[in-house]
Amino acid sequence: MKLLRKNGLRATALGALAVSGALVLTACGSDDNTDASSTPTKSDTATSAVCKDAKGQLLASGSSAQKNAMDLWVKNYMATCSGVQVNYKSSSSGEGIVAFNQGTVGFAGSDSALKPEEVADSKKVCKDGGQGINLPMVGGPIAIGYHLEGVDSLVLDAPTLAKIFDSKIKNWDDAAIKKLNPDAKLPNKPIQAFHRSEDSGTTQNLGKYLSATAASDWKYEPEKKWPAPGGQAASGSSGVATQVKQVDGSIGYFELSYATSQSISTVKLDTGASAPVEATSENASKAIAAAKIKGTGNDLALDLDYTTKADGAYPIVLVTYEIACDKGNNPATLATVKSFLTYTASADGQKVLSEAGYAPIPEEINKKVQETVASLS
């Protein structure tokens, strides 16, 4: 994939996202879903033009949701830009933002846009009157994975999902689940629900979906910290996926790439559309395509529609942002930050996403991302 020097993706309509996706990171963590040891071919890597002025080591951290994307991006980028080392620590959105606002990383990854107080904190690190801004870089579905022996297909709706994660529905043969799955042989078995142990944008996006679609059954504010009582906690998307994979009777939430790589069954959502909707990159793209930019200036935070009932639109989606200073970036890493993000936002960088279960950012939005990355100072 020869990296284009021109800004802009292939001319595709906003409503017809190209579904592409394999993400990669040279990060901490043991949940790689790609063969990062393989040598990238020339078509996989960036062209040397993107390497201009990039040098030394670039540290970044944050969202585990984009780990698999980062792994690929880092591998491809470093294969071309010799002498540059990019190290992304996959932890959580909350930890990434803290690290960014402490000035210990060149950029951070977050599954949720910066809060006003986090923007205020960033002004202490971003010099020359700058502040942290949200650059949407990765899209994709949050899958509801489950492990239930003898049940290969499972449909849930928002109210039932809310009651499960709020410990109000405790058994798999509950009447509400039976009603949605009349042909399934649901066992009289306790539900073991897993959630993230640390602050997570994935948790917050699931909360936004439940708040928007099942307000009477989900009374919690959409926050990064898991709000409901009960359930079991695991660290990172990889940790939740591992528990669901191992424990019969379990259910949890994580990015689709984790379900795909570990062959975990995923729930189809009854959204009110003509048929239950499966968690796929293509179906997530249909939901993300309707996103609007709600940020101002160089901030490109998006407003997602979690209540869509459009046929084939999977509504539990997230967009992962890269957080950088609009101006006043660390001079020692600025050129490398711009170089690396130029690649990730390029046509080639976005194209690799679908191979790993992610969805590229819509073209109209991504053009603005490219322009903003070029203007970082």
Automatic annotation (TrEMBL):
Gene Ontology BP annotations: phosphate ion transmembrane transport
Domain of life per record: Bacteria
UniProt entry keywords in alphabetical sequence: Phosphate transport, Signal, Transport
Family recorded in the similarity comment: Belongs to the PstS family.
Keyword Transport appears in the UniProt entry: yes
Protein name: Phosphate-binding protein
The keyword Transport is assigned to this record: yes
PROSITE patterns reported in the protein's UniProt record: PROKAR_LIPOPROTEIN (PS51257)
Pfam families the UniProt entry points to: PBP_like_2 (PF12849)
Protein's gene: pstS
Originating organism: Streptomyces paludis
Binding locations of phosphate: S63, S64, A65, S93, D111, S200, G201, T202
PBP domain boundaries: 54-347
GO molecular function, one term: phosphate ion binding
Signal peptide: 1-18
Cellular compartments per GO CC: ATP-binding cassette (ABC) transporter complex
Family matches, as InterPro entries: ABC_phos-bd_PstS (IPR005673), PBP_domain (IPR024370), Phosphate-bind_PstS (IPR050962)
